[in-house]
Request: fold
Amino acid sequence: MRGGRLIAYLTLRRFLRLATRTFFRRLQVVGQEHVPDAGPVIFCGNHPNALLDPVLILCFCGRVVRFAAKDTLFRNWLLRPFLAILGVVPVRRREDHADAPPSNKMAFERLFEALASGHAIGVFPEGMSHDASQLARLKTGVARIAFGFHDRHAGVRVPVVPCGLNYVTPDRFRSSVLVQFGPALTLDDRWLELHRTNPHDAVRWFTAEIETRLRSLTVNADDWETIRVLDGVRRLYQPPRISLEQRIELARRFNAVYPGVKDEPAVRQLYARVRAYLDRLAAAGLTDRDLRRTMRRRETVARVVRHVTLVVVWLPLALLGAVVHVPVGLLLDITGDRLNPDRTLRATVKFALGVALLLAAYVALPVAIGASAGWASGIAALVLLPLSGYATLRVAERAVALRHLLRASIRVLRLGNEVEALKAEREALHVEIAQAVDRFGPRDREAAVET
Reply:
């Protein structure tokens, strides 16, 4: 990319970075030291959340990235100009063109050109966005690009950087996400020699190695119920106040170790007890965090006062733009959750529609106000509207926290005996899980909570 196109790309990336940090309440990026500062590189990631996945990688990898994406996206007139600015390379997928065998020779040529220019490219080797509980079988495109580029440019070994995208609640606004870049995988002499003698096996085994690297950065299980229960195990085991990265690493390790020990009688019994504990919590309308943070009445009152105070502080500024932000928020909730059956697209729809509506409002309203009341008033509106939007987020989050605190406190008081029984069960499970980890867990487990 050169000149005006690069400026447009960087401008759009800066805007998307701000938008994603607004969309996600907690966005943590780790492993950037594994990303080469210059030269060709291939980013490959898991693909659970549609268009938000490439946005997160291009915003926080520190490189200008050209992504490969299915060509059907270019039919969308709203997306087309943004795809052009970002230099997205269209790829014809077999499942999208059943009537004619697809050919991606031109797409590969453009990706090779980008790498030859010292740029980065991005590929999602699963081939599609999905909400399954584990990685889909990887396609061989990344391996073919890596070997094909080396064949064309002997001596240049392009590194493949795996990207793990872990969403706490993928389709929810103001949720959390961990973007993790793993150590680069490079074609060493062993891989190149295998490719010379058996290209098919080299591509297949290199793809398998990429899959292993991606699994080490993501949480995978046979089904969502297993993930739910093992996440409960993780919560009962983990020490307090650990980072999002450490939480995801613990979850990944529990899910990685469980298949090998699930038939052990002690593990089966413990799994059933944790599942029953989680079901009892759900029936009581409580969460494990409610039990862990059960406070005395004085502490509860202090937290209520603190939340209410902060709501009052932010409320006047939030009210200035309520006529804009409240309808947009309601529309996003309806559009994202009710009109979109594909869960992998809900966050993308909320993100894109929210950005489009707020940008339109932030431009149209100041212009209208400036034309009717003077340009000083229009400039004031241009400044105050985004500030009001931020204040609205703060008020909404405090209101949700306050509602949850009051509801949990009332239930704890009302369900006194059940809560005490759950606390006792929680403490017993905490001890048993620690003993099970000592017995069945990997020896390097401490690294998950000490990094």
